[in-house]
């Protein structure tokens, strides 16, 4: 399975000619080459994780694509046929097995409502928690997409999260809110955290790939 990191929180996975997109949002360059996409996962409704324009481009190129998201996404993405998923669900689509974990977005501030959010484990290999620190219980995570910067986190939070998950591999996501200096600082902290469990950090930039 090949992972390509796109800008911010968006990822694309490819296996046996099938493609899976995760969180193609407003901070991600327009996705124009998506033929072969069998599924899209939207972890939550915030626009940096999906936009109608991004979805329309993918759906137009792949009319049979299936879109998955929690209840908040089903309500927000009403112009598209989104299939409801929640913690504990498993879906088989094309070359991908998707297992879902967690229920809520991390708290940003007491003044801001907490929305629905799901994490997704792809082919028992890649885990991405969306905007949360949900740990997939009972899973030995091979590769973790770890948030590098967000209004809902500080670097100590993600360091503790990576140590708790203890994956073999980590790469940064959710980092378009950071300057180059901020990315470098976060990458250094994530490197330390994954190395505590004997894992390896991959400083992926948009367009970089990783074979899982």
From TrEMBL:
InterPro entries: Metallo-B-lactamas (IPR001279), RibonucZ/Hydroxyglut_hydro (IPR036866), UPF0173_UPF0282_UlaG_hydrolase (IPR050114)
A Pfam family annotated for this UniProt entry: Lactamase_B_3
Domain Metallo-beta-lactamase intervals: 7-174
SUPFAM superfamilies associated with the record: Metallo-hydrolase/oxidoreductase
PANTHER family named among the record's database cross-references: UPF0173 METAL-DEPENDENT HYDROLASE MJ1163, UPF0173 METAL-DEPENDENT HYDROLASE MJ1163-RELATED
Protein name: MBL fold metallo-hydrolase
């Amino acid at each position: 399975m090949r992972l390509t990191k796109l800008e911010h929180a968006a990822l694309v996975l490819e296996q046996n000619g099938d493609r899976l997109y995760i969180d193609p949002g407003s901070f991600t360059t327009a996705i124009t080459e998506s033929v072969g996409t069998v599924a899209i996962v939207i972890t939550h409704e915030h626009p940096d994780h999906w936009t109608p324009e991004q979805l329309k481009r993918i759906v137009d190129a792949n009319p049979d694509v299936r879109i998955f998201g929690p209840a908040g996404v089903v309500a927000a993405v009403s112009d598209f046929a989104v299939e409801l998923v929640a913690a504990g669900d498993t879906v088989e689509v094309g070359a991908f097995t998707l297992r879902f974990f967690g229920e809520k977005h991390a708290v940003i501030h007491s003044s801001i409502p907490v929305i629905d959010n799901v994490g997704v484990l792809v082919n028992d290999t890649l885990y991405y928690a969306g905007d949360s620190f949900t740990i997939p219980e009972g899973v030995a995570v091979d590769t973790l997409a770890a948030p590098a910067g967000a209004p809902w986190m500080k670097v100590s939070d993600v360091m503790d999260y990576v140590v708790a998950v203890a994956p073999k591999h980590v790469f940064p996501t959710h980092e378009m809110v950071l300057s180059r200096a901020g990315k470098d600082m976060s990458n250094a902290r994530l490197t330390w955290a994954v190395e505590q469990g004997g894992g390896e950090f991959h400083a992926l930039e948009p367009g970089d790939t990783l074979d899982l």
